[in-house]
Amino acid sequence: MTKRLAGKLAVITGGSEGLGLAIAKAYASEGADIILVARDQAKLGLAATQVRECGAEVQTYASDLSDGKNREELVDTLAIINRNRKIDVLVNNAGTSVFTPLGRITTREFEGQVNLNVAAPLFLTQSLLPLMRKPGASVINMSSYFADKLLWNRPSSVYSLTKGALNSLTKAMAFELAPEGIRVNAISPGTVDTALRRNTISRLPTEQQAEIAESISSLYPSGRIGRTDDFNGLAVYLASDDSAWTTGAILKVDGGLSLS
Ligand SMILES: NC(=O)c1ccc[n+]([C@@H]2O[C@H](COP(=O)([O-])OP(=O)(O)OC[C@H]3O[C@@H](n4cnc5c(N)ncnc54)[C@H](OP(=O)(O)O)[C@@H]3O)[C@@H](O)[C@H]2O)c1
């Protein structure tokens, strides 16, 4: 059977664990070659081994994408190493969340989340445009249910702001890049058991931690929170030519969370 992403080259930010790694393995299994970007080189190495086992050629780049200079250096390197190959897919997946009550939000927290969750997708997409296949490239932004939904005990002013901005950015970029044949969509996940979620919960007051972990599953009509590979089908569809007429969409994959 023909692989749906055969011959494609995909850049996946935050590809060393969690959702990004699951998507990298799904893309590799469908025939794509993969460029993984995250900060920790050791984690990237372990992830690359797993992705290669799925059949892909894999490049890894250690870069803190919240920093504009790092993003420029990354793009310069990618332009040299991949000078004979166009980028078909960019998954802007790296993200961070800090849940702090409004009265205690610091400028540092604000800038940290805005820089990684909004500035990185915007400016990485901008600087990778000359390297992307036109027509045909696909950009996928990893949003969150927190763009639209607020939960007690999860004070999400800044995180919600960043994911709401990412949804608006997705639509604006889709509109502007459509004439060039580049599609831009977002996946909006519900809760998934990853390091991001575990770290977020561990930063809450101790008495809230168990309560949050238990109560969150009960919010899901499907009876469970997400698994990292719950997004693979949609991520492959959005990267493939099957979605040639899908652009500007914010697609919820959340076990029905948003229904209540
Ligand atoms: N988990 C959830 O419940 C959930 C729900 C909705 C939306 N999301 C969104 O899904 C995306 C992935 O989340 P996840 O849960 O899979 O996270 P995760 O398991 O914590 O993985 C995050 C990935 O991003 C990388 N990363 C973090 N900061 C970075 C930086 N400054 N520069 C470059 N890479 C960085 C991490 O590697 P290094 O640490 O080595 O850099 C890692 O590869 C995020 O955008 C998140 O907002 C998650």
TrEMBL record:
The keyword Oxidoreductase applies. Gene3D superfamilies: NAD(P)-binding Rossmann-like Domain. Pfam families: adh_short_C2. The keyword Metal-binding does not apply. Keywords: Oxidoreductase. Belongs to the short-chain dehydrogenases/reductases (SDR) family. This is NAD(P)-dependent dehydrogenase, short-chain alcohol dehydrogenase family. It comes from Noviherbaspirillum suwonense.
